[in-house]
Design a protein that fits this description.
about 400 residues; mainly beta; Pectate Lyase C-like; 26-stranded parallel sheet; three-stranded antiparallel sheet; 29 strands; disordered N terminus; PbH1
C-alpha cells in the first residue's frame, strides 16, 4: 500500500475484559488475537495496536486482504498466521518466509489473478513450521485461465503453483488445491518434511486443456514422507526428481502419468536413493509405475521399492522402466544409456489391469543390477514389448 502516514491512536485503551473489540482487533483472555485488515486509513493504526496489545507468542492473527508488508509484520508478531479468503494480484508470488515454530493456516478461498509468468503463485519457507488448511479452505489456482493443452512446453506461460522451499522439520497437512496452472506442489531443497492429507483436484483439466499438472514433485530433498495424497490430474501423480530417504504411501492417483521416479539426470543434482512407495492405487491413468532416466546423462537410482500397488484401467504401461528419456522433448529416444544406472529395485505385490491397447510391462535400460520382483500380476495389455537390459531373472 506504500507511503501511508500513521494516524493517531487517539489515546484509546482497550479494556481487558471477556472480549474487547477496537478497529477490528479482538482480544480475549486466552489471550488470542485476531486481526482483520480493514480500510487503508486504519492499516498503520491496527499494526500499532497489534504491537501494543500482543503479550504472548501464542497470538493468532488473521489477514483477509493481501499486503506484503502486513504479512511480513504479522509473521514477526504472531505465532499462528491465518490467511483468510485473500486474492493475490496478478504476477505476484504469495511469499511466506515463516519464523521458526510458526503455524500458517489457509482459510476460505484463496485465488490468484491471471498473468502469464513462471511463478510460483505460492512460496513457503521455514523451520519447525506447520502449514495447514482449515476445513473451509481452498487454494484455487484457476488453471483454466492458462490451460491450452500445451503445458509448460508452449502456448501461454504457466506459473508453478506451490513451492515448499527450504523447509526443515516441518509439516504440510490438510491442503486442498484446485486447478493448478502448471505443477501443483514442489518440495525442493528441504529436509524432514511430512506432507499428509493433500488433495489435488485438476479434474477440470481433462476437458479444458490441462497438461503438466503434476501432483507433487520432490527435488534435492531428504527425509520426506508423503501420505494420504489424492491426485486427479494430467501428469505425474508423484515425481521424485532427486533426493534421499523418501516414503510415499496411501496415495490415490487418477488420470495421471503414474507414481514416478524421474526423470533423473540432466539437472544439477541427479541422485535418487532409499525410496519406498507403498499401499497405493492408480486408476484411469496413462501409466502405473514409472521410472525414467535421461538419455546421455549421469546420476544414480539406488534402493527403490514399490510394494502393494494396485493398478486399474491403465492406458499405456502398467510398469515402465526406461533409460532413454529425452529431457528436452519429453519423449523417448529408443536407445537406453547407462549413465544413470538403476540398482537394487524391488517390486513386490504389484497387481492390476491395463487396457488391451496398452503394455503390461516394458523395460529399456542399461547397467541395471540387483532387481528383485515378486508377486507381479499385471494383465490385460494386448501389446508386447521386450525387457531390454533387465537383470537376470526379470521378465516382461
Amino acid at each position: 500500500m506504500g507511503n501511508l502516514k500513521s494516524p493517531s491512536l487517539m489515546g484509546e485503551q482497550i479494556p481487558f475484559v471477556e472480549e474487547a473489540n477496537f478497529l477490528g482487533v479482538v482480544l480475549d483472555k486466552t489471550p488470542r488475537l485476531t486481526i482483520k485488515i480493514m480500510k487503508r486509513r486504519f492499516l498503520v493504526t491496527f499494526l500499532g495496536v497489534l504491537a501494543a496489545v500482543k503479550s504472548s507468542d501464542s497470538a493468532s492473527c488473521t489477514i483477509s486482504t493481501y499486503n506484503e508488508e502486513v504479512i511480513k509484520d504479522t509473521i514477526n508478531k504472531c505465532e499462528e498466521i491465518i490467511l483468510s479468503g485473500i486474492t493475490i494480484p496478478a504476477g505476484v508470488t504469495l511469499d511466506i518466509n515463516l519464523n521458526q515454530g510458526n503455524k500458517l493456516v489457509f482459510q476460505g478461498v484463496l485465488t490468484w489473478e491471471f498473468y502469464e509468468w513462471d511463478g510460483p503463485l505460492l512460496n513457503i519457507t521455514g523451520t519447525d513450521v506447520e502449514i495447514s488448511g482449515a476445513p473451509d479452505h481452498l487454494l484455487d489456482g484457476r488453471g483454466n485461465l492458462w490451460w491450452d493443452g500445451k503445458g509448460g512446453g508452449g502456448g501461454k506461460t504457466k506459473p508453478m503453483f506451490f513451492i515448499a522451499h527450504g523447509l526443515r522439520n516441518s509439516v504440510i497437512r490438510n491442503i486442498t488445491i484446485k486447478n493448478s496452472p502448471n505443477h501443483a506442489i514442489w518440495i525442493e531443497d528441504s529436509d524432514g518434511v511430512l506432507a499428509q492429507d493433500i488433495y489435488v483436484d485438476n479434474k477440470d483439466g481433462d476437458t479444458m486443456g490441462g497438461h503438466n499438472t503434476d501432483g507433487i514433485n520432490v527435488w534435492r530433498s531428504n527425509n520426506v514422507t508423503i501420505q494420504r495424497l489424492t491426485v486427479y490430474n494430467q501428469d505425474d501423480c508423484v515425481a521424485i526428481k532427486s533426493g534421499t530417504n523418501l516414503a510415499i504411501s496411501n496415495t490415490f492417483c487418477s488420470g495421471t502419468h503414474g507414481l514416478s521416479i524421474g526423470s533423473v539426470g540432466g539437472r544439477d543434482y541427479n541422485i535418487v536413493e532409499h525410496v519406498k512407495v507403498s499401499n497405493s492405487k492408480i486408476v484411469k491413468s496413462g501409466n502405473g509405475i514409472r521410472i525414467k532416466t535421461v538419455y546421455g546423462a549421469t546420476g544414480a537410482v539406488t534402493d527403490v521399492t514399490y510394494e502393494n500397488i494396485t493398478l486399474e484401467d491403465i492406458t499405456n504401461y502398467g510398469i515402465i522402466i526406461e533409460g532413454d528419456y529425452n529431457i528436452n522433448t519429453g519423449g523417448a529416444v529408443g536407445v537406453a544409456t547407462g549413465g544413470v544406472p538403476i540398482k537394487h529395485l524391488i517390486l513386490k505385490n504389484i497387481t492390476g489391469t491395463v487396457k488391451e491397447s496398452g503394455v503390461n510391462i516394458y523395460v529399456l535400460v542399461k547397467n541395471a543390477t540387483d532387481w528383485q520382483w515378486d508377486g507381479i500380476n499385471v494383465t490385460g495389455g494386448g501389446k508386447k514389448k521386450t525387457c531390454d537390459g533387465a537383470p537376470e531373472g526379470i521378465s516382461c
